[in-house]
Amino acid sequence: MNTSLKGTGLRALGLLAIMMIICGVLYTGVMTGLTRLLFPEQSTGSIITVDGVAYGSAFMGQPFTATNHLWGRPEAWTAIQGDDGTLRLYGAPTNLSPGDDAYGAEIKERVARIAAAHPDQGNNPVPVDLVTGSGSGLDPEISVAAARYQVGRLSQTTGKSAAEINQIIDECTRGKFLGIFGEKTVNVLKVNLMLDGILK
Fold first, then answer.
1. Domain that holds residue 30
2. What is the pLDDT of residue 161?
3. Which residues cross the membrane (predicted)?
């Protein structure tokens, strides 16, 4: 082999090794350390923990169905048990088209079920986010209107007054991004933990 070519190859391998250390080890380590330091809650998944018990992530939707809980958007969870016995949860949208007959039937069933659970709402339309899934299938928040829609049912099943429930909803409402982008949203998990008296 040509000595010059061999030297070039060795330099290239040396440069590759240096860049792997810088980009793959040092940079990753520094960024991980900084995020743990500056954003300790977010960097570990924003897990809501009370008295040592983890109840879930503030950024991950859960399928609440109990009548004394606030209901969120339809979630698309798949639980798979690993060889070690632990459950791994995967979420994804259904990818059904609005033009699909199966999708239309699914939406009608959800509308009928939610309307039947909230007779106090009369002919008020069911908020769209209570019957449609998000793009990720794991949206942890709903609109303020969707949360208010459920106040009557929650008042009956929790023993709390409508005013108390509305106060909890207000406390769990996040404003628009930078005050102008998007809409106000309500974190479903936080509301339910407050309804259960777990989160203050």
1. 1-44
2. 96
3. 12-39
